[in-house]
Amino acid sequence: MFSNQLNRARKAAGFSLRELGSHVGVSHTAIKKYEDGVAMPSSDILIELSKALKVRVEYFFRTNKPVELKNIEYRKHRLLPKKQLNAITHEVINQIERRIELENLFPSPPIKTFIPVSDLPAYITELAEIEEVADGVREAWGLGFDPIPDLMDALETNGIRVFMLDANADNKFAGLAARANELPFVVVGSHWSGDRQRFTLAHELGHLMLDGRLANGLDEEEACNRFAGAFLFPKVSVLQELGIHRNAIEFKELGLLKEEFGLSMAGVLYRARDLGVISSAYRSEQARMFRDKGWAQKEPGDEYPTEKAHVFEQLVFHALAEDYIGESKAAEFMNMPLQQFRQIRSMEGSDVVVNQ
Fold first, then answer.
1. Please, which residues have CB within 8 angstroms of residue 194's CB and are 6 or more apart in sequence?
2. Which domains are seen in the chain, by residue range?
3. pLDDT tens readout for residues 119-178
4. CA–CA gap between residue 251 and residue 44 (Å, rounded)
5. What is the pTM of this model?
6. If residue 247 lies in a helix (H) or strand (E), which one and from where to where?
């Protein structure tokens, strides 16, 4: 319904009624009438609305079943103002709706159904027990104990939809996990470095895997941090790389392990402390040194490569190749002008970023 779609797009863009009206050239009262369903904009105003809100005109006339988010878990959400949280939530819903609509075009599901991992501890009373949960997920997914080169692909392959969100929000948004129409998904900010994105994705996976398993008194965020570290850098690998006990670890060692496992240098230190390889005092000493050097904000060396969200784009071209959709619908899914889409399809603009 047009009114609902307009309201959602406005909130996703973070505009007030007055701000959107100013961008479009109408009063805030007119915008409210559009959203209340008591008036419809002219074709010219409709085009201006699509430009201001950065959506295609077709977006306003979607008839999909509304998506309801459940069990939402944000990282750093306490630092975000309500207006920004609402904008993020509405943009997430927009992306999920497009994803569900696209997947429903296929005769059989193009993505594996998420199956809860069995044989995990049912009740966790200590953080150390989370090591077993992380190892159990790796085993169920056939990941072994080697580094995971493409974390997004590992999640998608096992039925967890992954979305990238360009919501800088002064670096206050990292990611979230939730369920939509019973489908589990995770969202990560596109502006972070690769190692931070990977930790956020693993942290949000922790929310999904630890749900209902934690004893009263265990902090869920701390538990998910422990899961993230254990999932990215398993205990057996930590002990193999660092040994059972160390008095000190060279910065270069930390950098090489970051390059291999995609976990930050600080994250490697936390893993070493959690597993008793180094003392808490040594980890705290190194943390102070990181802060003094400015490494707490940006670690030395080349940044770990960012994760790539490619499944949605692949599904669009799969659907196009099988004639499930035409070019216009494909461009709508990718939220770009038809001419721009045609350039990408012909490999003349392959570097253009898809607005998933």
1. 262, 303, 304, 305, 306, 307
2. 1-63 (1.10.260.40), 66-307 (1.10.10.2910), 311-345 (no CATH)
3. 899 999 999 999 999 999 999 999 999 999 999 999 999 999 999 888 655 567 788 888
4. 60
5. 0.81
6. none
